[in-house]
């Protein structure tokens, strides 16, 4: 029997990105300049049209000065993350 992991919460991921950008008062252009990522990529991430790559989220973590887990942890918002006692 194969046990599949729960689906990642991509909505949670984009909400974290939008919240961090809004907290800093940055436009998409400002975030693009600070992160080195394309404005279109950032818009697509925040609007849920793409999930991005690890490299993209790594760049964003450094740009926002947060651990990458702060960003990617949102993927498990609707279920118990792996490695949690009792999971």
From TrEMBL:
Concerning SMART domains, the annotation shows:
HTH_XRE (SM00530)
What SUPFAM superfamilies does the annotation carry?
lambda repressor-like DNA-binding domains
Tell me the ranges covered by the HTH cro/C1-type domain, including all copies: 17-71
**Matches recorded under PROSITE patterns:** HTH_CROC1
Gene3D superfamilies to which the protein is assigned, alphabetical: lambda repressor-like DNA-binding domains
Q: Name one Pfam family in it.
A: HTH_3
Query: Where does the source fall among the domains of life?
Result: Bacteria
**Full protein name:** Helix-turn-helix transcriptional regulator
